[in-house]
């Protein structure tokens, strides 16, 4: 039957070295047996040393991509990745309200897991007011959760409270990821999940001390998207995403000289 196979889409930027962005999303969609599509918002020239140039796509071209996919395909789930500024966030939010792309997972991409800022802080208000209320799931890392919840997280109770504050912004389900690289002796990372029905639970995984972590957040959120598209529950999708992303970090592949990608073969069944 037409459009019977589960179809998903990533909305974000292209990472030329394939370690993150829409490339990591598409690898993950393929590994999780869904057909992945993309709406490109920007492109970067980068490698394992860093990003060396970036170019944003025109808004009318972004509009055209949304329309083209919506006119033909029956998308079951979508995700957003890095959206560089308030104008782009507003454009994507408006387009998402014009189309039917099923579940929406927002990876907020405000800062790295080590606290380096990626999104203009002036755009955070637009993210909170326009995009998060459309989301079924959001997956902020530790520092992004602090920014979205407007609070410091210094304890497990704070992590739980941050999830509650983020949920109050209108997003249904929240996964607040734990802090990485706390000290040289860190052994575990604990993520807190707050579901739409009020259930909260912790997910624990070992801390892997490696430079091969590019695309971790992209991969985790993309697994959630793929599993939702296949009919799994939000809880089951998040639990599996945690498990498989840890496997992708643990089983390293040697690519690049510095900050390498995670292993997407480990995400497949």
Automatic annotation (TrEMBL):
It comes from the Bacteria. Pathway: Cofactor biosynthesis; thiamine diphosphate biosynthesis; 4-amino-2-methyl-5-diphosphomethylpyrimidine from 5-amino-1-(5-phospho-D-ribosyl)imidazole: step 3/3; Cofactor biosynthesis; thiamine diphosphate biosynthesis; 4-amino-2-methyl-5-diphosphomethylpyrimidine from 5-amino-1-(5-phospho-D-ribosyl)imidazole: step 2/3. Gene3D superfamilies: 3.40.1190.20. Keywords: ATP-binding, Kinase, Nucleotide-binding, Thiamine biosynthesis, Transferase. SUPFAM superfamilies: Ribokinase-like. One of its GO terms (biological process) is thiamine biosynthetic process. The keyword Nucleotide-binding applies. InterPro entries: HMP/HMP-P_kinase_dom (IPR004399), PM/HMP-P_kinase-1 (IPR013749), Ribokinase-like (IPR029056). Its EC number is 2.7.1.49, 2.7.4.7. One of its GO terms (molecular function) is hydroxymethylpyrimidine kinase activity. It catalyses: 4-amino-5-hydroxymethyl-2-methylpyrimidine + ATP = 4-amino-2-methyl-5-(phosphooxymethyl)pyrimidine + ADP + H(+); 4-amino-2-methyl-5-(phosphooxymethyl)pyrimidine + ATP = 4-amino-2-methyl-5-(diphosphooxymethyl)pyrimidine + ADP. Pfam families: Phos_pyr_kin. One of its GO terms (cellular component) is cytosol. It is an enzyme of class 2 (transferase). Belongs to the ThiD family. This is Hydroxymethylpyrimidine/phosphomethylpyrimidine kinase. It comes from Weissella soli.
């Amino acid at each position: 039957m037409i459009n019977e196979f589960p179809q998903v889409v990533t909305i974000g930027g292209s990472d030329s070295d394939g370690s993150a962005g829409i490339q990591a999303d598409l690898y993950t969609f393929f590994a999780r047996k869904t057909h992945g599509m993309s709406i490109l918002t920007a492109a970067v020239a980068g490698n394992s040393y860093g990003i060396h140039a970036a170019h944003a796509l025109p808004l009318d071209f972004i509009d055209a991509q949304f329309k083209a996919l919506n006119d033909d395909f029956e998308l079951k789930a979508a995700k957003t990745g890095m959206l560089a500024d308030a104008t782009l966030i507003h454009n994507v939010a408006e387009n998402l309200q014009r189309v039917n792309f099923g579940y929406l997972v927002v990876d907020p991409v405000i800062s790295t897991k080590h606290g380096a800022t990626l999104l203009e802080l002036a755009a955070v208000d637009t993210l909170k007011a326009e995009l998060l209320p459309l989301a079924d799931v959001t997956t902020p890392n530790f520092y992004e959760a602090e920014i979205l919840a407007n609070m410091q997280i210094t304890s497990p109770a704070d992590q739980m409270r941050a999830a509650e504050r983020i949920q109050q912004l209108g997003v249904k389900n929240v996964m607040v990821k734990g802090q990485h690289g706390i000290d040289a002796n860190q052994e575990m990372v604990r993520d807190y999940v707050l579901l739409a029905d009020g259930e909260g639970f912790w997910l624990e995984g070992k801390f892997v001390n490696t430079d091969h972590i590019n695309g971790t957040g992209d991969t985790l959120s993309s697994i959630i998207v793929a599993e939702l598209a296949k009919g799994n529950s939000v809880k089951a999708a998040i639990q599996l995403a945690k498990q498989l992303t840890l496997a992708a970090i643990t089983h390293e592949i040697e690519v690049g000289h510095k900050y390498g990608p995670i292993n997407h073969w480990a995400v497949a069944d």
